[in-house]
Design brief:
473 residues; alpha/beta; Alkaline Phosphatase, subunit A; 9-stranded mixed β-sheet
């Protein structure tokens, strides 16, 4: 064999090897970063219409991906988190209130609230378990609030857990992130953050740990569950940012809380840090980013000031009016989502489970089987065509408990129609969300036939999923 022929053979081998590497790279699994804010309201981001909060990084993410205008969660935190991880409705799981509420239900109300379980059962299949079975590294960083130590993230498919406990909020966002909490003065702490130093801020420190985990994953695929505590109370904004927003507040602005605004900016900054790190590691084109909130914004008074507003939506956290369940949702799928896409199709937190599995080429039986039927529907098609439609007849909500914003209630949305049924007096309210997103005009009397049909559908759904309901004392 002469030298020229050898050279040709070697060149061909190099080309084939290059093509093989390129093909291998093209089929490398997608990473997933699921970022969940706590109690972030529908209009709390700049890209969702806030007139005070500055969120340039999340606004940019919305310009690079798809922003959903009618995304829904459960009305409080733990039910949403359970629904996200399992793809199953909180009512079917029996997790319809946060953990402390399940353990200590209200005792001085007209009705006895429905019984709820405090811990996510091990019999349920989680996203982490599916990803782990597929060879992913699985990380949980931040708030958990889905069970005691026997039901910690490590028992639900996560390789590592930093910051997740059975508590739903920290005693403070400042180092050492521990101290007495609430009227009972319960001592709380955030584990896994090391010694730290005075001045450290919880949202920053959680991001520090998340970036270390992304770094440690190297070339292995990972599922990062980054669930910030922010902006849940206590409202501990960084002093400099608090003062910045204090000087920006003017009469006529809807958002008026400088501490809350400061926490929103810090949240945004840390999302920006995650995005920048992925870019630095050349992982942007191989990583799905999901940003959402676990329920609507809190409208209670905290330290003498209303936390936030969900205007033009009615009410807030705990309620089944739109302000309690409609949330921000932004998704960026590399190479697929049109820049600046806006999707008006109703989606719900249970949809994240099947959507992520479809995007990553997995199935729900990838080594583990779901505990039962999934309520969620994949909205992967909407990430490619935001104007497309989902084949869904209705969305359902169930909160058989008391909260500052509500008495026990269920709700159903079908098309533009939404019906709420209150258990205390069997009252129903009917709204057309297309013409009345603020739910100010109750049409239950004028549209009695539509109300009756939706009520029957709601009752049938509650029976199907075994939803627990309040009872007389």
């Amino acid at each position: 064999m002469n030298g020229k022929w050898i050279c040709r053979v070697l060149c061909l081998a190099v080309v084939e090897a290059s093509l093989f590497c390129a093909q291998a790279a093209s089929v490398r699994p997608l990473n997933v970063v699921l970022i969940l804010a706590d109690d972030l309201g529908w209009t709390d981001l700049g890209c969702y219409g806030s007139d005070l909060h500055q969120t340039p990084h999340l606004d940019q993410l919305a310009r690079e991906g798809v922003r959903f205008t009618q995304a829904y969660a459960m009305p409080v935190c733990s039910p949403s988190r359970a629904a996200i991880l399992t793809g199953r409705h909180a009512a079917r799981l029996g997790m319809t209130i946060w953990r402390e509420g399940a353990l200590r239900p209200s005792q001085n109300e007209k009705l006895l609230p429905a019984q709820a379980i405090p811990d996510l059962p091990h019999s349920e299949t989680t996203l982490a378990e599916v990803f782990k079975a597929a060879g992913y590294l699985t990380f949980h960083v931040g708030k958990w609030h889905l069970g005691d130590a026997d039901h910690s993230p490590e028992t639900q498919g996560f390789d590592l857990n930093i910051g997740g406990t059975h508590w739903g909020a920290p005693a403070t966002y400042f180092h050492p992130f521990s101290g007495p909490f609430g009227q009972e003065r319960e001592f709380r702490y955030v584990p896994g953050l090391g010694l730290g130093k005075p001045g450290d801020y919880l949202t920053d420190r959680l991001t520090d740990e998340a970036l270390k985990l992304i770094e440690a994953a190297d070339s292995r695929p990972f599922f990062l569950n980054l669930w910030y505590y922010t902006p849940h109370t206590p409202l501990d904004g960084k002093p400099g940012l608090v003062e910045k927003y204090r000087t920006r507040i003017q009469p006529g602005l809807r958002h008026q809380n400088p501490d809350y605004a400061a926490m929103i900016e810090t949240l945004d900054t840390n999302v920006g840090r995650v995005l920048a790190h992925l870019k630095k590691r050349k992982l942007t084109e191989r990583t799905v980013i999901i940003f959402a909130s676990d329920n609507g914004g809190t409208i209670i008074q905290h330290r003498g000031r209303q936390v936030t507003t969900n205007h033009p939506l009615r009410s807030g956290k705990g309620s089944l009016y739109e302000g309690g369940i409609r949330v921000p949702l932004i998704v960026r799928l590399p190479g697929k989502t049109p820049r600046g896409g806006t999707c008006e199709q109703p989606v719900i937190c249970t949809d994240l489970f099947p959507t992520l599995l479809e995007l990553c080429g997995l199935t729900a039986t990838n080594g583990v089987a779901p505990a039962g039927p999934l309520e969620g529907i994949s909205f992967a098609s909407l990430l490619r065509e935001p104007g497309a439609r989902l084949n869904r007849e209705a969305l359902f909500f169930h909160y058989p408990h008391y909260y500052m914003t509500t008495t026990p209630v269920s709700a159903v949305r079908s098309g533009d129609w939404k019906l709420l049924e209150y258990f205390a007096d069997q009252r129903v309210e009917l709204y057309n969300l297309a013409s009345d997103p603020g739910e100010q005009n109750d049409l239950a009397q004028q549209k009695s036939e539509e109300a009756a049909q939706l009520r029957d559908r709601l009752h049938a759904w509650r029976a199907e999923v075994g939803a627990r309901v309040p009872s007389a004392r």
